[in-house]
Amino acid sequence: MPVDIRRAADRAVTTTDWLQSRHSFSFGDHYDPHDTHFGLLLVNNDDIVAAGTGFATHQHRDMEILTWVLEGELTHQDSTGTRGVIYPGLAQRMSAGSGILHSETNDSTTQAVHFIQMWVIPDEAPITPSYQQDEVDNQLANVGLVTVASGIPGRDGALTLHNRAAALHVARLRAGDTITLPDAPYLHVFVARGDTRLEDGPELTGGDAARLTDSGGRRLNAEHTAEVLVWEMHAKLGG
């Protein structure tokens, strides 16, 4: 049951006058041929966008893009005519499909927005661009993993993911809580904030990630309050 621990401080960082983006994998100008993805997950960016700024209109295609806000609000607008405000507890998925233009802005005049953005490739391309969001805040009040997005047959999530081998789960844990991780060939466990400990393994704190192969359903214990994002993947890029 190999476990590869990636510490928060070791991530590449993009910093501008309005953005701090920490990358779990190669992204933009930060390229490492040995760290381009894990399983089906290509991007896990931990972004803080200053008040009154954001990403101007830009294009994506053939990508499933999941956004999870930790603090503040992020305004999304795209070329399909969709406009939405994403906030903590509201899950969002954008399927870029055959091509979509969108912007992501922080319209607050005082507060930064902190969010995690994750990308996986759809099973088929091209597909029609689409957008979906759903409120899961009430579900997160219970101990356990909440399936935020899923394409796995028979495993529905709040959002539909156009990849039959992947699902995203989220848990908000209190001190002393324990969750059992999915049994899957590939798991990416990202501690968005707080303190946890992997069963028979090390402590994981905010920004740390564990990449597990053939994990066998290990447990994760919360040392204090924590918010955890778990990608369950039953395939990897390239087969």
From TrEMBL:
GO molecular function, one term: metal ion binding
Keyword Metal-binding tagged: yes
Signal sequence segment: none
Protein name: Pirin family protein
Alphabetical list of PANTHER family matching this protein: QUERCETIN 2,3-DIOXYGENASE (PTHR43212:SF3)
Cofactor: Fe cation
Record-linked Pfam families: Pirin (PF02678), Pirin_C_2 (PF17954)
Organism field: Mycobacterium vicinigordonae
Keyword set includes Cytoplasm: no
